[in-house]
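Can't paste images in this forum, so I'm doing it all in text. The chain is below; anyone willing to post the predicted C-alpha cells underneath?
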Amino acid sequence: MSITRTQPVLLIHGGAWAMPDDAIEAHQHGIANALRAGWSALERGGTAVDAVEAAVTVMEDDDTFDAGRGSFLTRDGRVQLDALLMNGENLRTGGVACVERLRNPIQAARLVLDKSPHVYFVGSGAEQFAAEHGMNLIANADLIVPRERDRLTAFLAHEASGGTDTTFSGEPTLHSHDTVGAVALDRHGNVAAATSTGGTLAKAPGRVGDSSLIGCGCYADNLSAAVSLTGWGEPIMKLVLGKWAVDRIAAGSSPQQAAIDAIDYLYTRLGGHGGIILLAPDGSIGLAHNTPRMAWGIANPQGHQLGITRN
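Text version of the structure:
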C-alpha cells in the first residue's frame, strides 16, 4: 500500500508596521535565515511543529525583530516576552508570557506543549518550568540592545514634553511592531503555528498581548488552518481574530479571502491595524495586512520567496 505524502510548506512573517526603507535589508536577511532553518526541518522529515519552532527561534535570536533579544522595552526598561506554539494534528498547545530570563520563549512554549498537561505558564512560573526542563536562565540585560534603550528614552521624553511630533503618535503597530510568526504544513499533512513577541514599545509591565493567546495571535487545527498574526494586540484579542479567520476557512473560504476578510474586519469593527498569514492543510496560503509594510517569506519544494509588501 502506497503512502500519500503532502508537499510541505512554510510561511513566516516578521512583522507588519511602518517599516522604514533602511530596515528592509535586515528584515529580508532575517526572514531568509528563518526560512532556511524551518525548511531544513521539513526537508529532514520533521514535523510542522519542528519547522515553526526552528523558524521562530532564528528570528528571536535576530535583534532586527521584536521577539527575543532586541525586543521593545517596557516602561520600566525591561524585556518581557510572550510566545505560543500550537499543533494542528491534536490541538496540543504551549504558551508562555511575561518571561524575562529566557532567550527563546518559543522553545519554552515547545516544552509546555510536549512536557506539561497544562497549556500556559506566565512569569517566574514559566521560567521555572523551562529551567526544570533544561533551558538556561539568563539576565534580562542580555536581552536588551542599546537601540531599544535609546528608543524608550526618546519615547518617554516625547511623552513627558507633550510634543506634537507624530513619530510616536497613533497606534503602536504603525510605528513599532516586529512580532514574528510561522505556519507550516509537513509531509504527513499536519499544520502548526507559532508566534513570538516582545510586545509594544513602553508597554506597562505585565501587559500580555494577542501573540501568545490561543485563537488571537496564533491558532492551528488540521480541520481548518494554521494562522499567525502581528499588529495592534488589543483589537486582535477582542475579536479573537485568529480563530475568526480559520473558522472562515473551515466554512469554505480560501485562505487568501479569509486573510483579506480578517484584516477588513479588524479595521471596520475596531479600527485596528496588523497583518496575518494563513496556511490550509491543502497547502494553499493567505496573507494580508493594512499597515504600510509587512515582511514575509514562503518556502516549498519549488523554492524560497521573500517579500516586503506595501499597502
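The two ends are 49 Å apart (CA to CA). The first helix runs from residue 24 to 43.
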